[in-house]
Amino acid sequence: MVARTGPLPGPRVRVVHLGGSVFDALADGDLHRANAVSPVPLSPYFAGPDWRGVWRMRSQQLRQDPASAAWVTGVIWDTRQQVAVGRAGYHGPPDTAGLVEIGYAVDPAYRRRGYARAALEALLHRAATDEAVRTVRVTIAPENTASSDLAAQYGFAAVGEQWDDEDGLELVYEISARN
Question: How many domains does one find in the chain?
Fold first, then answer.
């Protein structure tokens, strides 16, 4: 991870974890119900069609493994502005080899303001401080050069490619959790 001194430039964020009832409501596109049980207020984009597949997947994942709630996708919460700007988290707890895969996405209304970088830094920090994590993976669509460039700035190296049924072709990047 890139070492920094002094206060971090750009937004300050934390990843706020969600419970199964929030995932269920978001998967149904029910923002009112989601906000009734969410620890932070969510914008309409969270319940929109772009992210429903992720919420369905996480909802099912929590039903099968409730302990994964502390790892899976949460809200990128801007602590200064007090607003939900995106989603970020891991695809699940570390596997037996110590691998975690991260994912993040920023609401289009908040893009190009440093939120993806801030979320990536938060996820890398958590991975670096958890003894069970040895390797961090991120998968990126080949045409998403902004995300590829961001990952490269943190030392992620391309290790292959894979096909994802929902997202199509993805390039696979990895980095040691403790650089």
Answer: 1
In tens, the pLDDT along 7-30 reads 556 789 999 999 999 999 999 999
Three-state DSSP at 38 gives coil
And the tokens for 16?
């706020």
Give strand pairing partners of 103: 89
Checking if the pLDDT of 72 tops 80, the result is: yes
List CB contacts of 95: < 8 A, sequence separation 6 or more.
none
What whole-number distance in Å separates Cα of residue 138 and Cα of residue 48?
Answer: 24
Q: What are phi and psi of 93, to 5 degrees?
A: -65, 165
The least confident of 2-6, 9-13, 130-134 is 2-6
Q: Which pair of structure tokens corresponds to residue 117?
A: 């970088």
Q: Is residue 4 part of a domain?
A: no
- The whole model's pTM is what? 0.89
CA dist 165 → 53, 145, 169 (Å):
11, 21, 9
CA nearest to 118, candidates 75, 156, 171:
75
Position 89 in a domain:
yes
Residue 95 lies in a domain: yes
Copy the structure tokens of residue 151: 């990952």
- Domain assignment of residue 120, given as a range: 13-176
- Report which of 163, 167, 175 is spatially closest to residue 134, judged by C-alpha positions: 175
CATH number of the domain that residue 88 is part of: 3.40.630.30
